[in-house]
Design a protein that fits this description.
- The longest helix has 30 residues, at about 200-225.
- By secondary structure, the chain is mainly α.
- α2 crosses α8 (about 165-190), α2 crosses α9 and α8 (about 165-190) runs antiparallel to α9 (about 200-225).
- It has helices spanning about 5-10, 15-25, 35-45, 55-65, 65-95, 100-125, 130-140, 165-190, 200-225, 230-255, 265-270.
- The radius of gyration is 19 Å and the shape is globular.
- It contains eleven helices and no strands.
- It comes from Longimicrobium terrae.
């Protein structure tokens, strides 16, 4: 199963399950995770993610027509990647298992680099959009971790603890969700950037996607390994709960409009459920203020 299958699919629903399977297919040697995939599929059926629908994709596409929204979205991505890097760094520092510790450390280094890559996309897509002082400040969103650095728990971090299956489930869902957003972001960025920047932009995007899928895969494998020693019902229930939690985060980002208040499966059976107007609803990028950005069309 190729990455191209994920990028080129013409449907906006079913991409969550596809992303997980594509990620695992990239592992070498081939990796089978039947417990993980069964739990994921059941969770998706019980708690259908709004970000795995054509409605959400349409909302994102409309929002991304705004250059300012797209620019702030890239800054928000950088902010979230930098924050995620610090969480992972703390988890890695407290991991007693060398292999897991190394995986978490590599993940933290990736996220730290991603923060800078999203800022590079900002520069390439909207050159000069941020005033120099503000743009310099944005570089601080990345903790600039490297594999050569010694691990330490970030002071005050609630993630200074041994990672559990619950942590890996949340990482896995978050990485899949980020992958879906990344896929939607690709054509939006292409629409705003100049033709001479397309090659550099595509190179960065390919690097980001490779890493996201790698993170989906390694967390899936860890979930599979731990789940073998746990009651299947417990694993399924926890997966379902965490998918539901991320759904609620997504509802909140959409502004609590009620667009996805009932299940997506219900709406598929009853189209009238989606009578709420979608015209002015856009996914929130975050509360990050960007005073150094001019008004972009």
């Amino acid at each position: 199963m190729s990455v191209e299958a994920l990028l080129n699919t013409q449907i906006s629903s079913g991409r969550v399950a596809l992303a997980a399977r594509v990620a695992l297919s990239q592992c070498s040697p081939d990796t089978e995770c039947p417990i993980y995939l069964e739990a994921l599929d059941q969770a998706l059926e019980d708690e259908p993610p709004p970000y795995d629908t054509s409605v959400y994709a349409d909302i994102y596409e409309k929002a991304a027509l705004s250059g300012r929204w797209m620019a702030v979205s890239l800054i928000t991505n950088a902010e979230r990647e930098g924050d995620g890097a610090k969480r992972l760094w703390s988890l890695a520092a407290c991991s007693p298992e060398p292999t897991v510790q190394h995986q978490l450390k590599c993940h933290a280094v990736d996220e730290s680099r991603h923060a800078l890559l999203y800022l590079a996309l900002l520069d390439l897509t909207f050159p000069g959009a941020a005033d120099p002082a503000f743009r310099t400040d944005l570089n601080r969103l990345s903790p600039k971790f490297a594999l050569k650095h010694d691990l330490y728990p970030v002071p005050g971090s609630p993630y200074a603890k041994k990672a559990t299956i619950d942590d890996f489930l949340q990482m896995n869902i978050a990485e899949i969700r980020t992958t879906i957003h990344h896929i939607m972001q690709r054509p939006a960025i292409s629409m705003h950037c100049s033709p001479d920047a397309h090659t550099k932009v595509a190179s960065i995007q390919n690097s980001l996607l490779r890493d996201e899928l790698k993170h989906v895969a390694y967390t899936a494998v860890l979930i599979e390994q731990i789940a073998r020693e746990l009651p299947r019902e417990r694993v399924n229930a926890l997966f379902r709960k965490r998918v539901g939690d991320f759904n609620r985060i997504t509802y909140s980002e959409l502004g609590g409009t009620g667009l996805f208040d009932c299940s997506v499966a219900c709406c598929a059976r009853n189209p009238s459920c989606r009578a709420t107007s979608q015209e002015h609803v856009v996914p929130a990028t975050s509360n990050f203020a960007a005073p150094g950005l001019p008004v972009l069309n």
